[in-house]
Design goal:
The protein is 58% helix and 10% strand. The chain has helices at 2-16, 23-30, 48-69, 75-85, 88-97, 108-112, 119-137, 139-158, 166-178, 217-231; strands at 183-190, 197-204, 207-214. A hairpin with a 2-residue loop joins strand 2 (197-204) and strand 3.
Length: 236
């Protein structure tokens, strides 16, 4: 069993093109809270603390990259792009590129209910892995490891594939998780005709998940969709 786990760890390190100096950090990054220690000799803790650290490391690296890459973008636009780039959906996609699901150490119950394919588990594990690399070798190494992920995602955003289109992202998430489509309801208009502000709610199964405002309905719907995605913890 130990040889099998060591082989799996080696395979993941090859995918990352990075070899851990401290293997305990790698094991901790891959250990989900659902896993119950079988032996008191196993001192490995779960990956929640590393996830917390990795989240901050990721935000710094992504922010630095966008600041340097998108030199003509405003603060507001950079914030919107970053919120999508560090979303659970994108992180889970990056985790899938590493086949991370098959390396995660899960409890039997979580494993039997498809935990290896859950977006939240994959995304959290990716952040934990980044936190582990940061502790093992520092910020520059962590930056180098995920630079290819960030670069590819930035190119897709620049091409308009996604990024600020929160309505499309909310539709994909709601269809996948709740088997429904979002509804956008105008609840209020205020201001003079030449400078109206629209207030719109994003609803899923008749329940309000987000509220947004804008100078036109399209802008308000995007704002409401973004708010809903935050409530659903898809973006931050």
């Amino acid at each position: 069993m130990k040889k099998e786990k060591d082989l799996m760890s080696n395979n993941l390190e090859k995918k990352l093109d990075y070899k851990f100096k401290n293997k305990t950090l790698l094991k901790e990054a891959l250990t989900h809270p659902s896993f119950q220690k079988k032996s008191l000799k196993d001192k490995t803790t779960n990956n929640q603390r590393l996830e917390f650290l990795g989240d901050s490391v990721l935000n710094l690296i992504v922010t630095d990259h966008l600041y340097r890459k998108l030199t003509s973008s405003s603060e507001g636009k950079l914030t919107k792009i970053k919120s999508v780039m560090v979303s659970k959906d994108i992180l889970a996609k990056w985790a899938d590129r590493l086949s991370l699901g098959k390396y995660i150490i899960l409890g039997k119950g979580e494993d039997s209910t498809g935990g290896r394919n859950k977006l939240s588990i994959l995304a959290d594990c990716f952040e934990a892995l980044l936190g582990a690399i940061y502790l093992d070798s520092g910020l520059q190494k962590a930056k180098k490891i995920i630079s290819s992920f960030i670069k590819k995602e930035t190119e897709l955003i620049i091409k308009g594939k996604y990024g600020e289109d929160y309505k499309t992202l909310l539709q994909e998430i709601s269809q996948k998780k709740m088997k429904c489509l979002p509804e956008y309801c105008l609840i209020k208009e205020k201001g003079p005709d030449h400078k109206k502000i629209f207030c719109i709610e994003a609803r899923l199964k008749k329940i309000t998940y987000g509220t947004g405002t804008g100078e036109n309905k399209k802008e308000a719907e995007q704002d409401a969709a973004q708010d809903a995605l935050k409530k659903l913890k898809v973006i931050k």
